[in-house]
Design a protein that fits this description.
- Helices cover 24% and strands 32% of the residues.
- It has 195 residues and is of the alpha+beta class.
- It has two domains: 3-43, no CATH class; 48-194, tt1808, chain A (Alpha-Beta Complex), CATH 3.90.1570.10.
- A hairpin with a 7-residue loop joins strand 12 and strand 13 (167-170).
- This is Putative restriction endonuclease domain-containing protein.
- InterPro entries: Nuclease_put_TT1808, Restrct_endonuc-II-like, Uma2.
Length: 195
């Protein structure tokens, strides 16, 4: 297999591009991760430390809220498979998935759209998160989509069933979580955690 680097992602360059399936994802060597969008394979590079710090911090914040409210939703950080269109040509690994319908879950991943997805972007992964994944998340029924941008210190919140225009917050804001009426995340605490 041959790859061309596209920021954090590697795109398959073979003639097969556009016809990859989940079987090709399953056949990758141990430790290699990739996503599929309409049969196009995007290889994923290892994340940076700041990415992982944000991933852990947010996952814990969400988990603690759900646990303290005895909620039925599950929060699952990457790597975790989302069979977003329930076909064999689309497969995502969101940074954080919140799934409230537990019937969608099995040991392989989530079958269908999570209720809430968080992607943590770097400058090199913007195209993937803003342009390629956004319409798929909207089309498949993701209710809330957050793009956390460490470089810009901002969070774009898409309420996909209401509007295509995001609400943009800074890392000093307290951001309400729309799928819960009484939950908001104070991102100023993240800055304290990162320093």
């Amino acid at each position: 297999m041959e790859f061309a680097r596209k920021g954090e992602f590697y795109v398959m360059t073979s003639q097969k591009q556009g016809s990859y399936t989940i079987a090709d994802i399953d056949a990758l060597p141990e430790g290699q991760r990739a996503e599929l969008i309409d049969g196009r394979m995007y290889m994923m590079a290892s994340p940076a430390l700041s990415h992982q710090d944000i991933l852990i911090w947010l996952s814990v914040e969400i988990f603690n809220y759900i646990k303290s409210h005895k909620g039925k939703c599950r929060v699952v950080p990457a790597p975790f498979g989302v069979f977003i269109r329930k076909d064999d040509r689309n497969y995502f690994e969101p940074d954080i998935s919140v799934i409230c319908d537990r019937d969608r879950l099995d040991e392989r991943g989530c079958h269908g759209a999570p209720d809430w997805v968080v992607e943590i972007v770097s400058p090199s992964s913007r195209r993937m998160d803003y342009r390629l994944k956004l319409p798929v998340y909207k089309e498949t029924g993701v209710r809330e989509y957050w793009i956390v941008d460490y470089a810009r210190r901002q969070v774009s919140v898409y309420l996909l069933q209401e509007s295509d225009t995001p609400r943009v917050y800074s890392f000093t804001d307290t951001i309400p979580v729309a799928i819960y009426g009484d939950f908001a995340i104070d991102f100023s605490q993240l800055l304290d955690y990162l320093i």
